[in-house]
TrEMBL record:
Stated name of the protein: Precorrin-4 C(11)-methyltransferase
NCBIfam families named among the record's database cross-references: cobM_cbiF
Keywords, ordered alphabetically: Cobalamin biosynthesis, Methyltransferase, S-adenosyl-L-methionine, Transferase
Gene name as annotated: cobM
Family as reported in the entry's similarity comment: Belongs to the precorrin methyltransferase family.
Pathway in which the depicted protein is active: Cofactor biosynthesis; adenosylcobalamin biosynthesis
Domain Tetrapyrrole methylase per the UniProt entry, residue ranges: 2-208
Superkingdom of this protein's organism: Bacteria
Phylogenetic lineage: Bacteria, Bacillati, Actinomycetota, Actinomycetes, Kitasatosporales
Pfam family, one: TP_methylase
Keyword Methyltransferase tagged: yes
């Protein structure tokens, strides 16, 4: 018996990976976050699978479901939105499984920031403009941020910032980033990325807070801040450059 933490993707049911769908199709138990995971994915489960919506469960109750499945010898598909590697609360579940001696595996998924970049039609890393992406959030009604990871500190880097779990506080974000990025810095907000009700807001630090409030965006959104969002005049990358010695590199590879 194994618990499989499966990244269900950012919202669209067909953005789950092939491995994720195949794993889901052979697990006798499926635990899923009903408020985030598309219901269409549950059709991939075996007809007789036990389906458990974890939206109203605490960590102890979720662990009880793992133990129950383990004792019955049933594999568990634990569906998480996006990718389990960031902001998924998987770490504490794996710690409980370690303590109970229950094996588990992680099946990666499409992260929300990748779906947001696709919706924006942008590459987040652009030659000479920005080569660093910081994934973070703010500390409001959630676990406090560690020292040195506040927006004001991270903003000093000038790197592209991708903010999760922060749509309720656009004014705070603007206030902390303005000194480092300037009022003309491009900002985009992508709510419900990849879903039929996807909403994209574009602006700058000077006006994005008003646009977010006017649109009523408060959850399931990614905020992207940085110059690469509007970069147009930049050199081509070396990867496909005509100056690159491909023959020499090919000989070395052989």
């Amino acid at each position: 018996m194994t618990v499989y933490f499966i990244g269900a993707g950012p919202g669209a049911a067909d953005l789950i990976t092939v491995r994720g769908a195949r794993t889901l199709a052979r697990c006798g138990v499926c635990l899923y976050a009903g408020s985030l995971v598309p219901r269409e994915l549950l059709a991939e489960c075996p007809p007789d699978a036990r389906l458990v919506d974890t939206a109203g469960l605490n960590l102890d109750q979720i662990t009880e479901e793992f133990v129950r499945a383990h004792e019955a010898g049933h594999d568990v598909a634990r569906l998480h939105s996006g990718d389990p590697s960031v902001f998924s609360a998987v770490a504490e579940q794996m710690r409980r499984l370690d303590a109970a001696g229950i094996p588990y595996e992680i099946v990666p998924g499409v992260p929300a920031f990748a779906a947001a970049a696709a919706a924006l039609g942008r590459e987040l890393t652009v030659p000479t403009v920005g080569q660093t992406v910081i994934l973070t959030r703010i500390s409001r009604q959630a676990t406090p941020m560690p020292p040195g990871e506040d927006l004001a500190t991270l903003g000093r880097s000038g790197a592209l910032l991708v903010l999760h779990l922060a749509a309720r506080y656009p004014e705070r974000i603007v206030a902390e980033l303005l000194p480092h990025y300037g009022p003309d810095c491009p900002v985009a907000v992508v709510a419900m990325a990849s879903r039929p009700d996807e909403l994209v807001l574009r602006g700058t630090l000077a006006d994005i807070a008003g646009k977010v409030k006017e649109a009523g965006v408060v959850r399931t959104a990614v905020i992207v801040v940085g110059r690469t969002l509007a970069a147009e005049q930049f050199p081509d990358s070396y990867l496909y450059s005509a100056d690159r010695d491909r023959d020499h590199q090919g000989r070395c590879a052989n």
